[in-house]
Structure formats: C-alpha cells, structure tokens
Amino acid sequence: MQPVIRLDAICKRFGARVALDRVTLEVPAGVVFALLGENGAGKTTAIRIMLGLVEADAGRVEVLGRSSAAEGLEIRRRVGYVPEHPTLYDWMTVAEIGWFTAGFYGNGFWTEYCRLVAQFGLNESQRIQELSKGMRAKVALALAMAHQPELLILDEPTSGLDPGVRREFLESIADLAAAGQTVFLASHQIAEVERVADIVAILAQGRLLLCDRLDDLKARVCQVTLTLAEEATPLPELGGAVLVAQRRGRHIQLLLRDGSAQRLAALAQDDAVVALDVRPASLEAIVLACVQADRDHGIAVPATEAETP
Predict the structure, then answer these.
(1) Are residues 196 and 261 in the same domain?
(2) With a threshold of 0.90, does the pTM exceed it?
(3) Residue 139 lies in a domain
(4) C-alpha distance from residue 168 to each of 121, 171, 174, 295 (Å)
(5) What secondary structure, in 3-state letters, does 215-240 show?
(6) Is residue 303 part of a domain?
(7) Using an 8 Å Cβ cutoff, are 32 and 200 in contact?
(8) Structural domain for 66, as ranges
(9) pLDDT digits (tens, 9 = 90+) for 268-291
(10) Each residue of 35-74: pLDDT tens digit?
C-alpha cells in the first residue's frame, strides 16, 4: 500500500540555520503518526513543506501520492490542517465561519460541520471572540474535518489548553484513528502523544533521530537499574545498546535497547550485582535519551522505517 506521506532526504535552511537535514520517513494509512521534538526542532517546517507552503532546498515530498512542490493546492484541498495558532475571524459566529468555509468545498461540508459542532458541544450562535482557547481549537478541528479529509495534520494542537480540554481533544483524535483516519500529529507533549500514537518519530535540530512503531519501540527499550557490589566494578555487558546511562557510585540507571533477556537474567545471579531491576521504559525517557545522545555524541538511536500494516 502506498504511504500517505513520504519524505525523501528533505533538506531546508533558513540562512545559516538548518531547519531540516536529510529527513526521510513514511507514514502509512490509517495510523496516528506523531512527530516529536522540542520547539525549533523542525516540525512545523516539515509540515509546511508537506502542504506545499514552503519549498524544500533538496529532496522530494509526496502527500496522498502527489508532489508537494508541484501540487500543493490539490494536497491542501484533500487534507485537513490545524496549525498551532489557527486564524479565525473573531467577529463571526461558530455557524457563520462554517458557512463561509463551506463555500470553498463541495456538497456535504455544511452538514458535516454542523454535526461536528454539536459533537464538540459548541454553541452555533456564539462569536469566535467569545470562545475560550479550547473552544476555538474545537472550531478549528471541526473546520479541518468537515470535508472528511483523507489526512488530518495537527501542529501542536493542545498547546495552551487546560488539562481537561487537552484530554477531551486527545480522545477525539483516538476516535478518528479508531475509524481508520490517518492523523499526522506534531507535538512536544510526549506524555500526551504516548496515549494516542501508533508510530513515533523524533526530530532534534532538524535531524531525524528515530522512527518506529510505539509498541515495538517500547518492547525493545527497557530501563535497567543496577546496584553493584563494588564502586569500582565496571558496567557489566548487557547484550544490547546503552542509549543513556547515569552512575552514582555503585548505582547505575540506564536505558537499554535490544538487550539480551538471557544476559539480564544471568546478571541477577552475578556476585558483582547486588540488585537488578528491569522495567519497560516510558516514551518520555526514550525521547530524552535520544536527544541527549545526539547532543553529546551526534549519534542517536538509528532511525528505522515503520512497516506498513
């Protein structure tokens, strides 16, 4: 099956600043794909290139089988997009902005918009300027979804929302995914993304550090805590790649990728090891480890292409 989004060695500079550095990834259909990274990592630039709003310096981007560089307008017609700061006409009511937007789309937009407005608990007669930030986000989402797009792109959609509205917004994303919608979500809110994402990718300073299915990633990375008998004892062989490690005297805490279960079990019986605890790593711990490794060594967990279901 053809990927919904394909980025092939994308590069983009703004003056001396490198926004994207040879980024390659694919987004299969019917998943929630989360692009994670700190502010300034290159997430919004990648989205704008995908939508044909910005031209890449090198590489090729395809969205829904079309070239972003040559067919940006057609892509934007078929995609639902919610930017971090949606531009809404404050003087319009919730109903009026839907009616106005319906003029740019075919039949069915208005009916679906009204359904979404009711689903989100919005008041059709209320003016945009009177809405809370959470309610404005819901209006933007309804406008993006009303033409029933093949792909929904969300750029920091929960930024500035209170926890209750955030949770409700994420639940709506989970509902979309359950219905087979493809969602591309750019965020720095790692804990929230962990609740809804099928595939995660990590950007840092324009470089792709990792791209993998969340379930596979968490199954392959564990948090290991060791207490050694002697402070001078070197770190034992663990049979995998140590992503990051902290040592305080006899105590060592580390993240291990693709560790050997047999080797870890044997360590528990080793006289040099007083205590051993192995548990699954959180997505937040994995992301921080990748970013820290990249800062320290310029090397992170190798990016892998997530398989299309």
Answers:
(1) no
(2) no
(3) yes
(4) 11, 5, 10, 35
(5) HHHHHHEEEEEEEECCCCCCCCCCCC
(6) no
(7) no
(8) 5-205
(9) 888 888 888 888 888 988 888 888
(10) 998 888 899 999 999 999 999 999 999 999 999 999 999 9
Distance between CA atoms of residues 185 and 157, nearest Å: 8
Q: Reading across the β-sheet that carries 66-67, which strands appear in turn? A: 17-27, 5-14, 58-63, 66-67
Considering the domain architecture, whether residues 9 and 155 belong to the same structural domain is answered as: yes
Q: What is the pLDDT of residues 187-225, one digit of tens each?
A: 888 888 888 899 999 999 999 998 999 999 888 888 999
Who contacts 148 (Cβ-Cβ below 8 Å, separation ≥6)? Answer: 108, 112
Please, what is the angle between helix 163-178 and helix 133-145, to 10°?
Answer: 10
Last residue of a domain, one of 151, 185, 205: 205
Tell me the residue ranges of DSSP E strands in the chain.
5-14, 17-27, 32-36, 58-63, 66-67, 79-82, 151-155, 182-187, 199-204, 207-213, 221-228, 241-248, 251-257, 273-280
d(CA 28, CA 20): 21
Cα–Cα dist 257/234, whole Å: 19
What does the block give as tokens for 32?
């929630």
* Residues 97 and 182 both lie in one domain: yes
Amino acid letter, residue 82 = V
What pLDDT does residue 304 have? 43
List C-alpha distances in Å: 237 to 3, 155, 242. 39, 42, 10
- 3-class SS letters over 119-175: HCCCCCCCEHHHCCHHHHHHHHHHHHHCCCCCEEEEECCCCCCCHHHHHHHHHHHHH
